[in-house]
Design a protein that fits this description.
The radius of gyration is 17 Å and the shape is globular. It contains eight helices and eleven strands. The protein starts with a helix and ends with a strand. It has a single domain, classed as Rossmann fold (3-Layer(aba) Sandwich), CATH 3.40.50.2020. It is of the alpha/beta class and about 190 residues long. About 40% of the residues lie in helices and about 25% in strands. The strands form three sheets. The chain has a five-stranded parallel β-sheet with strand order 4-3-7-8-9, with helices on both faces. The protein has a four-stranded mixed β-sheet with strand order 10-2-1-11. Helix 1 runs antiparallel to helix 3 (about 45-60) and helix 3 (about 45-60) crosses helix 4.
């Protein structure tokens, strides 16, 4: 209850800061929403970004995470906050693309082997990036424990826990269940 109230207050701050647009939005995944998060500007605001990182870390706190991994530069800042709030000494690692796939630098490969890894990104869009990183972590001997993001816009069922922190507040729907579609609100295609 307290956590929900805190997130509602945080969403008010996000809205008041201008990081939330209202309308009717369609994502590449096919899902619709009546609210659109300006992820780039939000993550530039260190106070709000740190609080988002804290909330995600809190969700996974009892999962005994050893390492945090972020697949993209967009999720890197959020991953740093999540790692810090799990434990200020928690390592955060980043893959590098090689031949169309992810791999980790040699220094990170040894850190993953036998460890419990939490994947963090700013948004889960199609789910492909998260799935590929989970496979890479597994291939290097790590155990993916969960995926955390500001929002999960994919509609994909993952075999591990996924936490889209702001999903309850973004009013996300399948097109058939979208109230904005039913009301005839013009649709804006989002590039992601």
């Amino acid at each position: 209850m307290v956590q929900a109230e805190r997130l509602q207050g945080l969403m008010r701050e996000v809205d008041e800061a201008g990081f939330l647009s209202h309308g009717h939005f369609a994502f590449r995944s096919g899902l619709h929403a009546t609210k659109l998060l300006d992820r780039d500007q939000l993550l530039c605001d260190t106070q709000i970004a740190s609080r988002m990182g804290y909330a995600i870390a809190r969700h996974f706190f009892l999962s005994r995470i050893d390492i945090v991994a972020a697949p993209s530069v967009w999720g890197a800042g959020l991953a740093q906050w999540v790692g810090f709030f799990l434990d200020p000494r928690r390592p955060v690692i980043y893959p590098i693309p090689a031949n169309g796939q992810y791999t980790f630098p040699e220094s990170s490969k040894a850190m993953i082997d036998g460890k419990r890894v939490l994947v963090i990104d700013n948004l889960i869009l199609s789910g492909k990036t998260a799935q590929e990183l989970v496979q890479t972590i597994t291939a290097h001997g790590g155990t993916p424990i969960g995926i955390g993001a500001l929002a999960d816009l994919s509609g994909v069922e993952f075999p591990i826990a996924v936490h889209g922190l702001l999903n309850p507040y973004l009013d996300i729907h399948a097109p058939d269940d979208c109230p904005a579609c039913a009301d005839g609100v013009p649709l804006t295609e989002v590039g992601y």
